[in-house]
Amino acid sequence: MIVSTSISRLSRYHKPVLLAGKNSCKDGNTSYVKFINARRASHTNVGTEVITLSDGKQLSLSTGKYARFADGSAIVSLGDTSVMVTAVCKHQSSNSSFLPLIVDYRQKAAAAGRIPTNFLRRELGPTESEILTSRVIDRSIRPLFPEGFHFDTQIMCNMLAVDGINDPDVIAINGASAALSVSDIPWNGPVGAIRIGMIDNEFIFNPTRRQIQDSILNLIITATKHNLIVMLEGSANEILEQELKKAIKLGVKECQSIINAIANLQKVYGKTKRKIETNEQSQDDDLTSFVKQFSETKLRDIFSKHTHDKISRDHAINDLRNNVMEALKDANSDFDVKSAERIFGKITKDVFRTLILEMDVRCDGRPMDGIRDISCQVDLFNPLHGSAVFQRGQTQVMCTVTLDSLESALKMDAMSMLVSGVKEKNFFLHYEFPPYATNETGHVGRVGRREMGHGALAEKALRPILPKDYPFTVRLTSEVLESNGSSSMATVCGGSLALLDAGIPISSSAAGVAIGLVTKYNETNTDIDKYKILTDILGIEDYFGDMDFKIAGTKRGFTALQADVKIPGVPLKIIMECIHQAKVTKWEIIKIMNQVIRTPQQKKKDKMPVVDNLEVPIHQRGKFLGVGGMNLKKIFLETGVHIFPHDENTYSIFAPNEDAMTEAKEMIENILQKDREPTLEFGAIYTARIVEIREIGVMVTLYNNMMPVLLPNSQLDQRKIHHPSVLGLEVGQEIQVKYFGRDPVSGQIRISRKVLQEPISISKTLHRDNAEGM
């Protein structure tokens, strides 16, 4: 049955190939019989590895059962959360200068037992959480592809089931590692990933969703064998340096068991890796020698000229490249332009790194631990609630703060809410990187994955310093006006200044810095022989370097970190040095920022919003709201003030400024004081006027302009009656009633007529009935 099913499917999709004869197959090289036998064998090549982690949880890895047409597939489960990951790579090179790797992580609604709530009731474009998870997976596996591997590769991660306890992002990283390991795609893995939290000074591996909410640390660590770190991504609540270092060490150690399990799975069930010829291997030695001889000395001069800025240095390198191409054209008109440009780029990178490693020279003249010149400014425009510009070298960021009502909080999508447990965010940061920031042209409007990732990192860095239960929703926007490296960390600095300028009582100023790395491997290309750590890296140092380690925090501790590694792992020793250097640098930056603004702005701006609470008695709620909320709509249209229900008796008032709040309160006062009712005394007797007769009772008023209230049949007479007409009552008639206050639930007035009547004894009732009978 399995063989016939495979033939049927092949006939449907590859009919022209099968018609050519049984000795032909899809690629025309493998015989039909061998192809069927291989496909039959793949149905039995199913394997599973189960790892028991330090916390007692079991991580299950399996392959060979599903998605067998993919180059590699794996299903990873932790608890009842399962993710399937597939890996597919083209056999032809894309002739690009970089690795065209695509990672798509999708959260299926069915995995959580839900149906999408959009109009089409199906999964549409990727959400922000899916994009951020895809970036984490990408950064975990990209450094381990061979140098010069430029084949289109796609990793797809489908969430099969989620239990609401275990986060699927770390599971997906391990799934991608397993899928690539068992595939025939060249990849120098495997890697293992772990999430680590910290509650009550104790570290927790793979904390649950609820534990994360109580944890001061949420750190994802991806590592490879020999305790080499490939990726770091995390947020913290001002965690101390020694605690962060300990967490990383424990996490890397925990990853080793996962790495060993994936390696065992690869050894038993993995495919033989493809033999490929990279662009680097096919380079012409004569062409390389010519380009190197013509450009190496001039490149050294360019990188040693410290007066160059970003634009002039780029122009100098581009001019030299054009001159090299012209010289090659004169010498040999048949040369491959792409190969020559690739060789020139490699030589440029080698010269740049050599100057740093051997001469301790950075292209802008700074020492290895030096930071660029910093300038800050706040309160840029009066109408803005908070604003700041942070300039570090040639990186310039403008941040603005907008305060709005709590009802304007960012609502999370249904799946992100189920996975993370966060329903809404009253603080969010939007990062914008327009093309003019790097002297380029391009489309504007669509938020790319890079922008979304940088904004999320800066938001993580600033969230811990915001006050709890702040009565406003805070939107922080960051627009990069100039970019020459570390724009996301400049956003942290500028955002902190803008929050202070808005008068938000943050706990402390926060700053961020990007730490770079340049390494040199030994002759066997296995261990790092020499390295240099660069503080506050430029864009070119990020491009030609081996790591971009972004670290942010306050004077007390760290709040966010993100490590992008470009080599197959960084030793723990180097990571520890980077963290210490970041601690020293961020404190120096905070001192510069404090010279501009140290504490929240006390002087209130004219355009600052205000909030207040209003208690409305239950019996006045209808008059306050008006028919269909008409009064609230009128207040909003005339003053711009929003009024929202807070609880049964309290309403929250949000006004764009103090004048609007005053005007709105006057309107509310007029509504509630208009025709104010006189004070009624509990137990007093009043004369009520009948205004309407109903089947259940009569509607009466106790004073002029009063809203009619119901006097029910049960309170009209000592006798039980079913309609007021039996008592001869008429509209306009006045009757005596007794007031018993208001109902505590509905707020309705309670009155009675029967309590004023004399009790009717049974004997009198019988006597009267007999008399009427006579």
From TrEMBL:
EC supergroup of this enzyme: transferase
Keyword Nucleotidyltransferase among record annotations: yes
EC number: 2.7.7.8
Any Pfam family matching the protein: RNase_PH_C
Transmembrane segments: none
A Gene Ontology biological process term: mitochondrial RNA 3'-end processing
GO molecular function: 3'-5'-RNA exonuclease activity; polyribonucleotide nucleotidyltransferase activity; RNA binding
Domain of life: Eukaryota
CDD domains in alphabetical order: KH-I_PNPT1, RNase_PH_PNPase_1, RNase_PH_PNPase_2
InterPro entries membership: ExoRNase_PH_dom1 (IPR001247), ExoRNase_PH_dom2 (IPR015847), ExoRNase_PH_dom2_sf (IPR036345), KH_dom (IPR004087), KH_dom_type_1 (IPR004088), KH_dom_type_1_sf (IPR036612), NA-bd_OB-fold (IPR012340), PNPase (IPR012162)
GO cellular component, one term: cytosol
PROSITE patterns: KH_TYPE_1, S1
UniProt keyword list: Cytoplasm, Nucleotidyltransferase, RNA-binding, Transferase
Domain S1 motif: 683-754
Family to which this protein belongs: Belongs to the polyribonucleotide nucleotidyltransferase family.
Protein name: polyribonucleotide nucleotidyltransferase
Organism (species): Lasius niger (Black garden ant)
Source taxonomy: Eukaryota, Metazoa, Ecdysozoa, Arthropoda, Hexapoda
